[in-house]
Amino acid sequence: MAKYFRLPKAALFSVVLFLLLIAFVISITHGQFPISLSEILAIVTGGEVKDITARVFFQLRLPRTIMALMAGIGLGMAGNIYQTIFKNPLASPDIIGVSPGATLGAAVSIVLLGSATLTMATGAFIGGIMVVMFVLFLVRLSPSHTMTTYVLAGIVMGSIARAFIMILKFFADPASELAAIEFWTMGSLASITASKVLTIAPLFGLSLLGVILLRRQIDLLALSEDEARMLGVRLTQVRLFVLGLTTLMVASIISITGLIGFIGLVSPHIARMMHQRNNFTTTILSGLIGAIIILIADTLARSLLQSEIPISILTSLIGVPVLVYYMFRQKELRS
Amino acid sequence: MKPLFQIENMSVAYGKKSVIRGADLAIYPGETCALLGLNGSGKTTLLRAACGLIASDGKTQVGEVSLDGLTDRQRAKYLSYIPQMTALVRGKSVFEIVLMGANPHLHLLESPGPTFHQAAREALARLQLTDLREQEFDTLSQGQKQLVVLARSIVQDTPVMLMDEPDSALDFRNRHLVLGVITRLIREQQRAGLITMHDPNFAMAYCDRLLLLKHGDIIGQIEMNRDSHPLIQEKLSQIYGPIELIRHRDSYFMLQRT
Do both B71 and B168 map to the same domain? Predict the structure, then answer.
């Protein structure tokens, strides 16, 4: 990270929080059923509004916007943590197996139990957590507990999960089941309801709190293993905790949204470019930036066409230019 | 005087291959010892075993406290470590790196308070690094990085400092600078220092005692203030073969005999 003009932390947060507020307001007011700010004000203050407006607001729009906010924060923060502890700027939830695990879980539910959203969400959550547990178990069995072992175990379990997904796809009914699996991997906030958000909120909150409490240890994991151990870091336990918490965070989100691509990869890069540091402030910034991107992407997903567009299409379309810009800027910095 | 750091009968094996055999050493307060030996003699292995980073047989003791069976966290209160080269740590400021030295003294979830912030500021001031405080660690030169890691060791505040060729990636001037700062600190604060080194000339210039390692055995030691010129030459030649030792003022220089 080069010495470019660097905004003070307070100014940086002011800018990002302001953008987040704008994205939040746009998200909560726009959609197939527009709700104006004055109507929202009336709903909140107990004023008079149409019954349907209040219902749409409480049952669909507010949960959906809050879910977009949570998803962005969770995926953005988790992405930055993965990139820090795996010392790899391309690390994402894929690396530890949570995404392929969740996809497998969702696919199993779709093929065996049908594509009711609740069973799919439960299946995805269990799948994501189970594959990561197998990864950690594999690491425990191995004589070496270096970060490379985690990456290798993640690749092994991810590949096994993908193989099973392919088997399920092969036997799935192309018209309904196969389509449902594919649709799940593209992510969508269309089926978010208040009860779903409330179901995952405690898990999300717990993992967020845990990550915040462990922030200093996460910073220490950026050092080499020898240095971290000689500074008294309980490597195995801390890694297990941090990976467990981030997995819980990611799994709780994607279990009800489906896979949302690029956020975990792109948000940390934008946060690092803006902050020109990589510490817990960057992790929080990464979460807030993730939230801005998802809020915008989700608003577009439900407004651009008559039918909903899967959100990963839009997050990728927003994410790719940012990544390309980063790629060129890196070259420029080196020269 | 009682030794501050002691290793008794330490052995290390990689599989069936024995790398260190029954090493004994004792380092006294204020003393810096160099571990000298050719490539493959077991210097780094002995140091890593002393750190507790690899499994070994034998006893390690700091003062009256046995380190055997202690966890990494408990051991980090007694031993600090300076690696040959610090890992690539993107995006951390110098101050953040120095403050990491507080970790062994904090609970898992605790943040360093004003005392440790003050200690970090003092450590940076002591090594004349205050101006670099907010600079990104990765943008520093190797010499500056080693000094920052040394400042982290000062904050860690351990009685024993273990260093794995801390000068090997440095240029001539920075080697003198870093080794000078390390040995002065150890002397002034009555700590015990163990450094693995490649270059006997730097070891003779800065260390109080040289431990000579050959094929995994400590075959002898040189006390720089006590041993005579011919004795030092004889002992060094046991490791380095035919050499010539030249004395200039108070310093020795080793040359290969042709």
Answer: yes
Rounded to a whole number of angstroms, the distance from the CA of A279 to the nearest CA of chain B is 7
Q: How close B52 gets to chain A, by Cα (Å)?
A: 9
A:B CB pairs within 8 Å: 91
Q: Do A222 and B109 touch (CB under 8 A)?
A: no
Please give the backbone phi and psi of residue B135, each rounded to the nearest 5 degrees, phi first: -70, 155
Distance CA B28, CA A198 (A): 62
pLDDT in tens, chain B (258 residues): 889 999 999 999 988 888 898 899 999 999 999 999 998 888 999 999 999 998 899 899 999 999 988 999 999 999 999 988 877 788 899 999 999 999 999 999 999 999 999 999 999 998 889 999 999 998 998 888 988 999 999 999 999 999 998 888 788 888 898 899 899 999 999 999 999 998 999 999 999 999 999 988 999 999 998 999 999 999 999 999 999 989 888 889 999 887
With the CA atoms of B97, B99, B100 and B105 taken in that order, what torsion angle do they form, in degrees rounded to the nearest 10? 170
Q: What is this model's ipTM?
A: 0.90
The CATH H-level superfamily of A9-308 is: ABC transporter involved in vitamin B12 uptake, BtuC (1.10.3470.10)
Q: Which residue of A has its CA nearest to B104?
A: A232
Q: Are B136 and A276 in contact (CB under 8 A)?
A: yes
Number of domains into which chain B is organized: 2
Q: Which of B108, B110, B156 sits opposite A231 (nearest CB)?
A: B156
